Amino acid sequence: MVTNSTMDEKTAPSDNKPVSVSSGTLSPTGRPQRNLPGTKDESLYQWPQRPLESIESAFALREYLQSLIRQDPHNVDLIITLPTGQDEHAWLYEHLCQVCLELNYLIVHLEPECTPEVCPEMRAEEWMYYCATHPTPRECCAIDYLTHTLDGASALLNNVKFFPSRICVPEGSVKNFQSIARRLYRIFAHAYFHHRDIFDAFEAETSLYDRFLKLSRSRKLITDKLIIIPNLNNEDDSVAAGARQIMSRSRVD
Amino acid sequence: MHQFQSFTPQTPTVAEYAFPSVLQFLQSEWRRFERDRNEWDIEKAEMKARIAFLEGEKRGVDNTKLDLMKRVKMLEFALRQERSKYLEGNQGAAKSTAGSPASTPQVNNNSNGMSGDVMTNGINNNKALNRMSTYSAFGNNMSQVSPTSATSLDPAGRAKSREFLRICLQEISYLTSSVPQSVSMAMPPVHNRLSRHDSDKRAAGPNGMRGAGSSKNRHSDFFPANVHPVSVPPPLPRSNSVPIATLQTIARNKAAGTQQAQESNGNDTDVTAHPEDDDAEQRTLNQREITRQLSKEAKSIAIAATLDADSTQKNDIPKQETPEVAQRTIDEEEEGPTGLEAFQREEAITVVHSPVSAEQWRADLQKAGQQIGQKSKGKKVEGNPEEEAQLSKDVQDKFNISPERLNKMVKEWDRDKSKQDVGPVKTPVNKRKSKDGAVPDELASLSISETDVIENGGNVKEGESNADEPVRWRPKVTLRRHFDTVRSIAFHPTHKSLLSGSEDGTMKYWNLEASLKESKRTLNGDVEPIHTYRGHTKAITAVAISADQDKCFSASMDSTVRSWKLVPMNKEAFSRLDPEIPMSSFIGHTDTVWDIRLFPLSISSSQLLASISADGALKIWDTETKGSPLRSSWGYNGLEPSEWTEPTQAYTSGLAKLPVPTGLDFCPTDLKKMVVSYSNSVIKLFDIETGKEILAFKSNDTYDGTAKTQINKIVCHPTMPVVVSGHEDRFIRFFDINSGTCSFSMLAHLDSVSTLDIDPAGLVLCSGGHDASVRLWDIASSTRSCLQEFTAHRRKSDEGVTTVKYHPTLPGLMATGGADSIVKVYMRS
Fold first, then answer.
1. Would you call A39 and B481 a contact, using CB atoms and an 8 Å cutoff?
2. Which of B38, B494, B570, B764 is the most exposed place for a label (fewest CB within 10 A)?
3. Which of B481, B662, B770 lies nearest to residue A155, judging by beta carbons?
4. What pTM did the predictor assign?
5. Looking at the record, which segments are called Disordered (chain A) (predicted)?
6. CA distance A188 to chain B (A)
7. Rounded to an integer, what distance in angstroms lies between the CA atom of residue B736 and that of residue B248?
8. At residue B223, what are phi and psi to the nearest 5 degrees?
9. Cβ–Cβ contact B218 with A under 8 A
């Protein structure tokens, strides 16, 4: 794990011409934070964590969030804590984007197993859901529901009409967070109740559900009565992740 | 059968058409075609360079024209001063005022007042006046030019002087505007044809609109699409103007030869078109005769009046035959007179009132035209700066004309002229004049920066094709659906659709058909992808489309390359998932796959795909085979014959310690080869079949041992044996494939160069950098000037633009992807 204190002191790039100010934000270490072609797996994203204030790009919050997650995806409390001086809704927005991003990978894992034959309906325990991305809600099979929901969420989150800026979120758009969160929750729910092993393995790797749930609860995005996945474990620290994984596996077996 | 063949090897038998020999034949044929194509490209580049050269000259001539204009203005002013002085002295002698303008020459010549040939000039002038008086419309403009300084004059005298001034001005516009024309006359055919079309336009008479349109369009054919103010310093040295320094001179000569041949061909066709022209000329003959006489007289006045600089230039022109002129074919000579410049020349020289026969007439004109052409050429070459400067100074001193004032006068003149251009003027003189104005303006607008283009917009937009303008790419569609950096984009080879791969692990396929049609820019991101490909478990690094197979490919940080069915363009968003879409995975790399490239040619039974990975290997896959897709794999040192059969574990693990590939491309000019760049900045040329290293480029001179100088991207030129590399140290470098030497190097961006693409025609290089800018480079010119630069994307974690792509077949379509998760599609305007 890289911490702020371990920034290596590399010399600035040997420019024969001074890089103009507009050329942007070289990190204090002088090493550009980018994955050059040819970078090996172990070196990907291996740059020091920058304090949020020093990130000058328009994507400062996203960069900060992603670097937190890369550092330790299981340190949920740190990840969902609003950085000081930041806009609550903008932070929420970035989080939801990140959840959508990572849910892609959950779907990738679900796809081989969650076929229209296996899951002809979008169910989570005793609930059944209709796909709301169509003009009239439709009974899509589970995998379609999942992809449609995710595509719909990404369409909404990327809509400049609702979210014109990454720095602040218009008041009118805040209500969208709830509907997005509610639908994304169902993806987790379906995975949990019907593809438990995949859900658990994924959760062990990313703690995505944990992050999402804590975020939604703390920001009142989802009412408690809609939460149908039983508490995985009461621990929220990363230490429990491994144990949780073992436990959940044994439970499935 | 075999026995029999072996005994009679000489006789051609059916067996000679065996598959290998056919294949060989086809290959040799194909190679021949490729060679020819290369030659054509070289030739094309030659022509381009020539055009640039000619334009440089043109600009010089324009400057001369401006200079002359200034002088004319000064003379006019001087004339007015003298005249008012004269009138003050001779109140009531209004009838002789017409003579007074003739005093100007004395001002110029010996600067001691008027005397002498006032009378003769006066007579000439009166003659001219008679002719001129019919063209009153023209006079109106003149009156605007003349300041009302001579208010005390009686009206008749004023009118007469005005007439005289008008003639002067007319003459001046002849002299000045005929300069570029005549110069162009001395050049090979491009300008000739241009002006031929102008003459068509003129001949078309009142309904000259058709001609106007066509001439503009033709015209656009002869000028490079991309002209940048700084791109062409006036006369380019010929040798440098060849785009790629390594072009063999042999090829150049050959190209020149072909060019010559084409010239005469083109002219032949022109000759066949002559009857029409002749008719038209006959029809307009009356008009022209008047004009001719007029101008002749005006000319004589002008000469008598000795507009100093001009006449000295005229007089001391040696009758030197430049080789270029001497070389010109008879065809050209025949064609020449139909051109506008010939028309002008004819006026400028002698009376050819009634041509005996069209041929005779034309020949005479041609001869005369050539002389003038030489004269102006000589004039241009010699110049006489000191004398001119002295003259200007003298006049300025004498009349206390400040430079500002002079400029103002010139401006006024320009304004009036442009007014004339626009105005619906009907008389022949004005028509011709407006043409004189329009042509140089049109030419000038080609070489002037975009602000000027905007100013000239009305003039330009109506008829001229956009390709003629400095090309401007404008964002048309913005695609926002990705959640993270867009790493790679690929256009469908024929459709208006696009594939984008992102670090969010998804690949999206976009149908741009509808959104490109919309007139307004659809920037608010309402375009929905027709499909989102999910399957990779980590970020996607590269995508590719193979239309023949109806497949697309993606490479990812999860070490795999995957192939997918290309969804149909009309697929609805949010439709049922097609389980057929994921097709296969190419598993074999053990580290991030950084780039993939499809072999440029696909044969029905096989489509090769090359991938490079951080594990150090380059792998070639056969994407169509039923069996094991891996065709070959090699590392930094290429493939040794022993490894060919069985890559050992030690070998693959050893690879990782060697430099890893960072970029790859197939060579369109030699399909057996491909280039790969490595993390130590070495570019290597490999034989695709054998995996043998053919050549290591001397590209690592700039490598300092760290990733800060590595190569991020390489692309092969589509038609020339050139590799272009984009470096982390912000440079773009050009390498010759045959020798491996760097032929050109330029500091291209403010931050590292992340991506490159060359337009399908091979004329423009597009580069994207982590400074968030996209730049277009004119690689057909020797200077590689930047044609356009724009900020395309916002930066995220020190990344800016990550990918740029031209549409492979549809011109005027380009897309960029950036760290801001956005894909932008641009159209050329």
1. no
2. B570
3. B481
4. 0.56
5. 1-43
6. 17
7. 12
8. -120, 145
9. no
